[in-house]
């Protein structure tokens, strides 16, 4: 199913999108990737959604990517005797390890690792930053705080600690069980929550053992500081603006988003912009103008994908939300300014033969009447490099591995096609031309650019480029062997 846009759409599944009819409708409306949120739903529910996605994929003969989003370590306060209390600005409030129910003066914080890392002057944010505490004194089992911003605090509200690197593993015991479950199930991407350091990613990669690509969610200040190192060991990135906007001043998030997107593009690694993109569509069939502008901004920046969370998982208008994203993407990408911005922000790369091949493919496609760039890719690397170029013509990514096709569904502009095994370049050219015809991109009078690595079945060996006619008889006439 070829999309008439380049940016991809990620839709989260949940109670509002839990059956075959809805999931198929979401894919037909524009969802390229389905996100399974491991924070909600037990393994039986996740397994059922996974099976439905694969059935839709089979019925529509259209590769679909599945992203399993691990919950990560959740830091929460304990419970209150009255269920909730009102904290007043300037008051004192203690966090400790005492099992007693909380009151207006204190509550349990059942995370010793936080106390081990805290120092006077550090800040703690409770309930998505609605309450702000400043540590005045602390020890191995307590933190005496001043209430800087007051509000209602209630049972098991989340706690953010933006000022320090916590000695907390990115993978909780629950995450380890979930990781093994979804890898055995057969997902394409693993999203890691609350990544702080490259070692968090490396640990997940070791556990996944090649069964899924690793996507790091950037939602901690320390992840921003260590971003270059985290990017190096990740297969993809999610700019998770929810917690990032809690732990950092909100005005910092837009420039960080732009910086991270550009770095991911330069590294040829897919990047998702996520959180509150069409938040009002949870309850409304129409988005706000500001939300539409936010979605458009991410597309103008060249993000590989934009994501829906509760809008498609629990909202009243999941299909309308996907349709809105699709329509905004189509309109933005039809704007001549979009092409100007994308090309102005393209970072020249020329370190390897593969870099030179894909750069030449884009240049040829944009300066001649070539209709598409067709790239053969076993591991997906060639397709990622072509995607990084952000060419003006469609990209057809051909592979004989369905797993590679599914992972590439997250990358900008890639139309993924699963082919039979190819052992000669001429066969690759013929397969490419047939795929271009099948997608309605060419006639027999047109031409395509074909890139591949010879010998075949050698990952990362992109070393050949051909401008090929789209009439098979001409291919045989010019290359009878």
Automatic annotation (TrEMBL):
Domain Pyruvate kinase C-terminal, residue spans: 356-467
Domain of life (superkingdom): Bacteria
Domain Pyruvate kinase barrel per the UniProt entry, residue ranges: 5-322
Pfam families hit by this protein: PK, PK_C
Alphabetically ordered keywords of this record: ATP-binding, Glycolysis, Kinase, Magnesium, Metal-binding, Nucleotide-binding, Pyruvate, Transferase
EC numbers for this chain: 2.7.1.40
Family membership: Belongs to the pyruvate kinase family.
PANTHER family according to UniProt: PYRUVATE KINASE
Name of the protein this chain belongs to: Pyruvate kinase
Gene expressing this chain: pyk
